[in-house]
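Note to self: user wants both folds in one dump. Writing first protein now.
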Amino acid sequence: MIHLLLLAFFAIPALIYFLPTILASNRGHSVAGVLLLNLFFGWTVIGWFALLLWAVLTYPRYPIHPEYYHPCDFGRRW
């Protein structure tokens, strides 16, 4: 039980701290720049909010398009 509490005690703040990097990665941004800036300036509140806004409000370099999937398609091309 104590191990789960310790895990939650360290994992939840780490997820919050790296939230701008996680969001940028999911939106298709270049992760290296956001990750480095998050490591160096994420501990400041202003830096963390700036990175969060950058990750959410800017457009990614390449668009992410969902791939068409139909369960009865069986690999056919129409």
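First done. Writing the second protein, which came from a different request thread.
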Amino acid sequence: MNSPKKLLIRRYLEEVVNTGDIERVAEFVAWHDVETAKQHVRGMRATYPDLHVTVVCQIAEGDLVASRVVGRATHQREWRGIRPTKKSIAIDAVNIDRVADGKIIEHWGVANDFEALFKLGALSANGSADSRD
């Protein structure tokens, strides 16, 4: 069953993060976090202009929504000191959002950056950093 809180998070990802439409952030995020959320979306889309996030599953309890998501994109700008590789990647992540009065008031997230580093060639199979310049 889709709760209004889960739908709010899904819509934010689909209508703001996937499109880069930062002018709509305030529709979804509490006033005190709007600028931070805009910066986050700008940063992700600068590195991955074709970013598309898909919600795999969600669990809502009380004022919290946990979402397992997959972000798919092409590495087109520098990220963590790694020059653009033009490689397509998929990154799994888990987000937890606190919702009150129809807005996201807190957000925590963890992405599997380690997997992304392998896919981009920044780490080798033995765990050492790539020494390419």
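Dump finished. Worth passing along: The domain at 4-119 is CATH 3.10.450.50 (Nuclear Transport Factor 2; Chain: A,).
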